[in-house]
Amino acid sequence: MSDERTNSGSNVTTTVLGADEIILNMGPQHPSTHGVLRVKLKLDGERVVESECIIGYLHRGVEKIAEHRSYQQFAPYVDRMDYVAAVSNGLGYCEAVEKLLGAEAPPRARVIRTILTELQRIASHLLWLGTHALDIGALTPVFYCFREREEILKIFEKYCGARLTTHAFRIGGLQYETYDGFEQDVKRFCEDFTHRIDEYETLLTENRIWVGRTKGVGIISAEDAIALGVTGPVLRASGKKWDIRKAMPYAAYDQYEFEIPTRPTGDTYDRYLVRMEEMRQSRRICLQAVENVPSGPIMARVGKVLKPPPGEVYHSIEAPKGELGYYIVSDGTTQPYRVRVRPPSFINLQAFDRMARGALVADVVAIIGTIDIVLGEVDR
Amino acid sequence: MPLDNEFVQRLKARFGDAIREATLDRKQAIVLVGREQLREISRYCRDDEKFDMLADLTAVDWPKREKRFDVILNLYSFPKNERLRLKAHSGENEPVPSVVDIWPTANWLERECYDMFGIVFEGHPDLKRILLPDEWQGYPLRKDYDILKQDTAWVRENLGIESGQ
Question: Fewer CB in a 10 Å sphere around the end CB: N or C, chain A?
Answer without folding.
Answer: N
